[in-house]
Amino acid sequence: MAKEKFTGVKGMNDMLPQDAALWQFVQKTAVDVLERYGYQEIRTPILENTRVFTRGVGEVTDIVEKEMYSFVDSMNGDQLTLRPECTSAVVRAVNEHNLLYGTNQRLWYCGPMFRHERPQRGRYRQFHQLGAEALGMEGPDVDAEMIVMLARIWKALGVGPVKLEMNTLGALDERQAHRDALIRYFEDHKAELDEDALRRLYTNPLRILDTKNPEMQELVNAAPRLLDFLGEKSRGFLNRLEELVSAAGIEYTINPRLVRGLDYYNHTVFEWITDKLGAQGTICGGGRYDPLVEMLGGRPAPGVGFAMGMERVIELIREVGNVPVKTQTDVYVIHHGGDTQTKALLLAEAMRDLNVRVIVHPGSGSIKSQMKKADASGADFAVFATEDELAEGAVSVKALRAYDDGRTVPFAEQTRVALADAPKAVAAALATMRA
Ligand code: ATP
Ligand code: MG
């Protein structure tokens, strides 16, 4: 009978062990920075009631119109959705648990999101976002701080230069005036609109500006600009944001065509873009969403946030060649003959007490075959717990690799160490090597 082959779901990737160090580096580096700005982690379920997103993201968006994994729970008929983004879910949780009662919140999250898109480089059906939300604060100082924080994250990650684009979506009445002007403009050019644009003409004309259709770029470039419809307050908001971002020495451009794919934004919108990833060059998007908390049933409270695409950030780090190397194993314990296995297991425990990362050879085997496994493990040292050595209360230690830069390696020659002293000796040798 032919063996059945199993494959993962299209557009959903496995993160393999050889990539784990890089993923952990990115999350840890970003979170270290976030914590320096007072952000705390929040985790929400991967499933939410569909309404959280239809209401929170907006009905007339790419996400809700065609990208959501929604289904009916066959057990009880509930309408559920695999989260396509996390802002709505975080706000749902904040409202549900009254986290804004008498205070504000700085929150970060990291995890998988799901969108039914056409898979391609940098665009997947399961992808990961690391994001943050600052809730209960009006800005624009908070918006500016968020942008400064992101610049610090890019620097810490070593992603090279990324371009900051900002824009404002103004306030609701300004957007409405702009929207009327947009509709009039696009009505005058109806023949040039594609199917998506026609569909959005009266529902969400602002989103036509976000089109990826190259044949519509010229039309869209000449469309009425929201910037020309801004009132005093919105203008002041943007000016102050620009002032603060400039004062921090961060370069940016104002892109009047920048709108977010999500409906709930107002005032600040921004994107960080690289030219090193082809068409999927936006590594991070964010902005202000003052109406959202109330839209999702809470007492009105302003908010601003961002989400970065982990896959894109990681690919960018690879692209600029800044991948940090990290070994997974310090010591491989080889044991041979008699009851050396028990002693090897206990020796490994004693080393782990000292924070050493140890693999004990599983099962048995010749010393030669164990040595091959030790080499392949990437460990720095092999510890030989053989019957002869142990009979004399000793083990021997041997370095498995040399430094490229010619520094001396402890235990370069196989060296005998008293069994009781071995854990300390190995830990000390590792410490000098890592120094
Ligand atoms: P795009 O215009 O590329 O579709 P978006 O506006 O839908 O992006 P957001 O919803 O703002 O993106 O998500 C924030 C970030 O998450 C993006 O800037 C990107 O880095 C990442 N991202 C979004 N969708 C995907 C995806 N399908 N696969 C991988 N990363 C993604
Ligand atoms: Mg999208």
TrEMBL record:
Reactions performed catalytically: tRNA(His) + L-histidine + ATP = L-histidyl-tRNA(His) + AMP + diphosphate + H(+)
EC annotation from Swiss-Prot or TrEMBL: 6.1.1.21
Taxonomic placement: Bacteria, Pseudomonadati, Pseudomonadota, Betaproteobacteria, Burkholderiales
GO BP terms: histidyl-tRNA aminoacylation
Location in or out of the cell: Cytoplasm
Residue ranges constituting the Aminoacyl-transfer RNA synthetases class-II family profile domain according to the UniProt record: 1-362
SUPFAM superfamilies xrefs: Class II aaRS ABD-related, Class II aaRS and biotin synthetases
EC main group: ligase
Subunit architecture: Homodimer.
Protein's UniProt name: Histidine--tRNA ligase
Key words of the record: Aminoacyl-tRNA synthetase, ATP-binding, Cytoplasm, Ligase, Nucleotide-binding, Protein biosynthesis
Gene Ontology cellular component annotations, sorted alphabetically: cytoplasm
InterPro entries given in the database record: aa-tRNA-synth_II, aa-tRNA-synth_II/BPL/LPL, Anticodon-bd, Anticodon-bd_dom_sf, His-tRNA-ligase, HisRS-like_core, HisRS/HisZ, HisRS_anticodon
GO molecular function annotations of the record: ATP binding; histidine-tRNA ligase activity
Organism: Sutterella megalosphaeroides
